[in-house]
Specification:
heterodimer, A: mainly alpha, two-stranded antiparallel ribbon, 4 strands, 72% helix, globular, B: alpha/beta, Rossmann fold, 2 domains, five-stranded parallel β-sheet, four-stranded parallel β-sheet, 18% strand
Chain lengths: 309, 409
């Protein structure tokens, strides 16, 4: 492999990782933009998403890597899996908000954030105790089609994963920009009090933010499973922390920022593994978090947070 | 409680006393501490090992193996949910629990070297000897690190397996002599065991003239190893050697199959586990080499009897480390028995000294220890995953094909 091939291959690796981080980062950003709350339960909503997806695929008779689907059946199964996983995770996010975070809405200080850490641990342990601690083999129904681009290899499933992630992000962006409730979300993000005075139902907006963010985390969990063909109760923390870094890098609260931040973190992880060492990945990524917070606290694309003046 | 209920309760207690096991009131109670990683990624292996210990303990209790004494296990778990696998901090806490219980005269475990490193200094201060059936990191019993791991002086960390000081290097010999590997890339999983294995392998591989193209460390909690595997692909070594346990191993095997499917891949006893079979799946795991730091004994008759009895009792298949676990139990019980026979007080110090002079016939052969507590027999066995469709997919003893004894240095 030439250096060019290597760069190309690592870019492909990085983009796949980045797609996942972006989906996850969006959940942090949506909620932060509106509530100024870092929602740590998001980590494990993502993890639960991968398990829901696993059960859905198994219910379709897929297990391990033996069953390969093509054409319409593949599209149908994937569509159903994404829908069920996203609705389930969206519902879970709303439930978390309703039960644990809404009662704390008017409590000042870090109470809500700490509660979200607690919820995160509850979700984590529920899966550990019910599903077990061992890694699970995640079905991969996608055919093993591969293209050689120069010296690099591009898998069909990787392209499919990128396409799905892009589609979801584009849909979210359009929703936030164009739809009525999207506009209400942006209005609430700018100034919750004024939005309320203009007749925006802030509670509804918050529920929507949790639903969308958690649904995307669920999609991220499914994509994680399809890409790595495994899942385990432990996957939420590392991916979640890196996605959080991506959200901060892009400017927390900023939707396009989270997408770009996710891709950047994915690329940094891949290139760091190539040119420095995999062992240093966390050092590199979290140094970026610190540097961003110190020198450009608003992130690359500007932070958007509720106006509390 | 009404009078009627109280009467019923009395009857129940009396009935239990009559029907229950015959109480041997005269027997003195001794406890054996057991520490394993019963929660987390290595739980399956831990359960097998615990069963192996319990076969030995139950055997002694039922057969009145130590006249005048009854053995009670004190089972502790060093796996935690936050670590997702063994947690050295929890292992240290468990070691303190054992030491503070005066009835505990000997201990069995731990499964993991990372736990062993945390426990050893505490056990040493408490003069409590432990026999591990699986943990193979050499530092714990190495006199060079005596200050750290046995501050009180005498060896307390005994093993019924050999150490990575042999497991890693013997596998390097196997790579060089049998597989004719000329260049290798080495990975570890950042744990005490994994790093030690990879270090020991690296040193001997260098001596055997294998070119070391690089060395990197995997984060067992991270999911993505494609970056490092792509780097390895570009360097094109003949083989990969991985020092570590299954949490990172599962992901490594899956992704390596996508990126470097034809490369020779192998590791130590950390990759000989049901997880490598079920969570990785065939064909991704096909051809992986692994080692065990013990002789492969499933062939002979004594071993077969044990394996059958074990299956009848627990309904899961025993493997080589179930046997080393059973053997560890036998060796500790033998030491307690010898102390009991002298009529001297049953103390930890006496049990430790008795262990040092052990010469116990077990399934794997006669177990005796060198001056550091290491097993005198240094056999390392090599296995390879070769799918056997007629057996259960998670059956370690059938899906891993015995290749032979790794060449000794």
């Amino acid at each position: 492999m030439t250096t060019f091939d290597l760069l190309l291959q690592q870019t492909i690796n990085g983009l796949s990782l980045g797609a996942m981080y972006s989906l996850l980062a969006l959940g942090f950003t949506l909620v932060y933009g509106i509530l100024e709350l870092i929602n740590f339960s998001h980590f494990n909503v993502f993890m639960i998403g991968s398990f829901v997806a696993l059960f859905v695929l198994e219910a379709f008779g897929l297990s391990g890597q033996e069953v390969i689907l093509t054409g319409l059946p593949l599209a149908g199964v994937l569509l159903a899996a994404f829908l069920i996983t996203m609705v389930f995770c969206g519902g879970l996010g709303v439930l978390v908000e309703r039960i644990t975070l809404r009662p704390l809405r008017n409590v000042k200080g870090p109470a809500a954030m700490i509660t979200s850490i607690g919820v995160s641990y509850i979700l984590f342990n529920v899966i550990l105790l019910t599903v077990g601690a061992d890694s699970k083999n995640f079905p991969n129904p996608m055919p093993a089609i591969r293209w050689q681009i120069e010296g690099a290899t591009l898998d069909f499933r990787v392209v499919l994963i990128w396409a799905i992630a892009l589609l979801l992000m584009a849909a979210l962006y359009m929703f936030v920009q164009r739809s009525r409730i999207g506009k209400a979300m942006r209005a609430t993000a700018q100034d919750a009090e004024a939005a309320r005075m203009m007749g925006v139902e802030v509670d509804k907006v918050i529920v929507m933010a949790f639903f969308l963010g958690s649904a995307l985390a669920g999609a991220g969990g499914l994509i994680f499973g399809l890409y790595y063909n495994f899942t385990s109760f432990i996957i939420g923390f590392t991916a979640g922390l890196r996605a959080f870094t991506a959200a901060v890098l892009g400017g927390i609260g900023n939707v396009p920022g989270a997408m770009v931040g996710g891709v950047l973190i994915g690329l940094i992880e891949a290139m760091g593994g190539q040119f420095i060492a995999t062992a240093w990945t966390d050092v590199i990524i979290f140094s970026i978090l610190v540097l961003v917070l110190v020198f450009k606290p608003a992130g690359l694309f500007g932070r958007i947070a509720p106006n509390k003046s | 409680m009404t009078r009627r209920e109280a009467a019923l309760a009395c009857i129940a207690v009396l009935a239990a006393a009559v029907v229950g096991p015959p109480a041997r009131a005269a027997d003195k109670l001794v406890k054996i501490g057991i520490n394993l990683s019963l929660t987390g990624a290595d739980a399956e292996g831990a359960a097998r090992i615990r069963n192996g210990f319990m076969m030995a303990i139950d055997g002694a209790n039922e057969g009145n193996g130590i006249p005048g004494y009854k053995i009670e296990p004190l089972i502790l778990d060093d796996g935690t949910a936050t670590a997702g696998q063994y947690d050295p901090a929890q292992a240290a806490t468990n070691a303190r629990k054992m030491v503070s219980d005066r009835d505990v005269v000997g201990a069995l475990g731990p499964e993991m070297s990372g736990s062993g490193k945390a426990m050893a200094p505490i056990l040493s201060q408490g003069s409590l000897a432990i026999i591990t059936p699986t943990s193979t990191n050499p530092d714990i019993s190495d006199p060079k690190f005596a200050q750290q791991y046995r501050p009180a002086g005498k060896p307390i960390y005994f093993r019924t397996v050999t150490t990575d000081a042999y497991q890693g290097p013997h596998m390097a010999n196997f790579y060089a002599d049998v597989l004719k590997v000329k260049s290798v890339y080495i990975l570890d999983d950042s744990g005490a065991y994994g790093v030690g294995m990879a270090d020991a392998f690296e040193k001997q591989a260098g001596k055997k003239g294998i070119k070391i193209l690089g060395r990197d460390r995997l984060d067992p909690k991270a999911a993505d190893y494609t970056a490092i595997l792509t780097k390895i692909k570009s360097m094109n070594p003949d083989a990969i050697y991985y020092g570590g346990v299954s949490q990172a191993g599962v992901k490594l095997a899956k992704q390596a199959y996508d990126i470097v499917p034809k490369m020779i891949k192998g590791g130590g006893d950390g990759v000989v586990s049901p997880q490598m079979l079920t969570a990785v799946g065939n064909p991704a795991n096909e051809g992986w080499y692994g080692t065990r730091a013990s002789p492969h004994v499933s062939g002979d008759q004594k071993a077969q009897q044990f394996v059958d009895a074990y299956f009848r009792k627990y309904n899961i298949a025993a493997d080589d480390y179930t046997i080393t676990a059973y053997d560890a139990g036998l060796v500790l019980i033998d030491a307690i028995k010898r102390v009991a026979a002298t009529g001297k007080p049953m103390t930890r110090e006496a049990v430790r000294d008795a262990l040092q002079t052990s010469k116990v016939p077990t399934i794997q052969g006669v177990v005796s220890f060198d001056e550091n507590g290491d097993l005198k027999d240094r056999t390392v066995s090599v296995f390879q995953i070769q799918q056997d469709k007629s057996a259960r997919p998670d059956d370690v003893s059938r899906q891993y094909h015995y290749i032979g004894v790794a060449p000794q240095s």
